[in-house]
Design a protein that fits this description.
The complex is a heterodimer of chains A (about 190) and B (about 150).
Chain A (H helix, E strand, L loop, with lengths): L4 H18 L7 H19 L5 H9 L10 H13 L1 H20 L8 H14 L13 H17 L4 H17 L7
Helix pairs in contact in A: 1-6, 4-5, 5-7, 6-7, 7-8
Chain B lengths: L2 H18 L3 H9 L6 H14 L3 H26 L9 H9 L1 H8 L4 H20 L3 H12 L1
Classes of the chains: A mainly alpha (about 190), B mainly alpha (about 150).
Chain lengths: ~190, ~150
């Protein structure tokens, strides 16, 4: 899970996002995107077919748990529970929820708010369907939240008209953010 | 070294050894052999070993180096995603990284995770950048880091 597969669901994320943005930002950029991806497509094809690494990919896809023939509910809940148990998980979620209130109010979302949640969701699905759950495998789930959480701090702060007060409150938040954390499960 | 640490470092050492012997056939064999870790990861590690020398300390420092690099990527990602906000707040994701025990502990153990997370997040950074500036360079860097 933690090795090759980050790249696999990243490519799936990018494929979804390219489809979404082809009609908007990437209008008339289709061939530029195809040419940019061509060397990597050739590399992946060579790696998988002539060099025969497709069999490892297939073996990975077919792998089954040695302990259980069915997926336990516990397995599905392992990573969501990990996210909610750590302040670096639940706090960014709270901040994103705050940011979303502002986005909905403005009826406008930032473009960056699409690829990161898609990447998180695909990662979570792949991780949750594995029966070998380890907390460190779930590390990939956190950074997309951290990036989007930035706006959850910025939006309420923008309501403060005094720029000095904004800086003081930002500084206080950043200090509290660094100092407060609960022990993680290894 | 912990077994996982050793396996991780070994990927770089095998390729570095082939480079030092100037053996193209060994380099090719090491590159294409089935391994837990992708070849690009091995190449990043050999560049590090060839630069600073190969030892337990330098193998662990590679993870630390990636940790700092990841902090920078998070800062850049926040800046790219929300260009109009107070610049001080671009530190929010980086400080979450610093305060997260999982990341700190696994970097201290020189595990692969952070390097593996660094590359896809860099690809996503270039993707978001390409939304703002849809140039060939940004599309290419997105694809490069995604495949790495």
């Amino acid at each position: 899970m933690t090795r090759y597969s980050h790249g696999l669901f990243l490519i799936a994320t990018l494929a979804i996002c390219y489809l979404i943005f082809l009609t908007k930002s990437f209008n008339r950029r289709f061939w530029q995107i195809v040419i940019a991806w061509l060397p990597d497509a050739i590399f992946c094809f060579t790696w998988l077919i002539p060099l025969g690494h497709w069999q490892w990919l297939r073996a990975y896809a077919d792998v089954k748990s040695q302990q259980s023939s069915f997926v336990l509910m516990n397995g599905y809940l392992f990573y969501p529970r990990q996210i909610l148990a750590e302040s670096s998980g639940w706090l960014p979620i709270l901040l994103i929820a705050i940011a979303e209130v502002f986005w909905i109010k403005r009826r406008q979302i930032t473009q960056a708010s699409i690829p990161y949640p898609v990447f998180f969701f695909l990662s979570l699905v792949v991780l949750s369907t594995r029966t070998h759950n380890i907390a460190r495998f779930g590390m990939i789930l956190f950074p997309p939240f951290w990036i989007l959480a930035t706006d959850g701090v910025a939006e309420p702060l923008a309501l403060l008209k005094n720029s000095k007060l904004q800086i003081v409150v930002s500084g206080a938040f950043l200090l509290a953010d660094t100092m407060y954390d609960q022990p993680a499960e290894m | 070294m912990d077994l996982d640490e050793a396996v991780q470092a070994n990927r770089g050492l095998d390729i570095a050894s082939a480079v030092k012997r100037s053996s193209l056939s060994d380099l090719w064999t090491e590159t294409i052999k089935p391994d837990w870790y992708p070849p690009a990861y091995g190449y990043l590690l050999i560049a590090w070993f060839l630069l600073v020398g190969a030892s337990v300390t330098t193998a662990r420092l590679f993870a630390t180096f990636c940790y700092f690099l990841f902090g920078l990527v998070l800062w850049l990602s926040a800046k790219q995603a929300f260009p109009k906000i107070n610049p001080l707040l671009y530190l929010v994701p980086t400080l979450f990284l610093i305060s997260d025990d999982q990341h700190v502990v696994n970097v201290a153990r020189s595990m692969l995770e952070l390097t593996a997370i660094l590359l896809p997040l860099t690809a996503l950074y270039f993707f978001v950048k390409s939304l703002d500036k849809p140039s060939f360079g940004n599309f290419f860097l997105t694809s490069l880091f995604a495949v790495l």
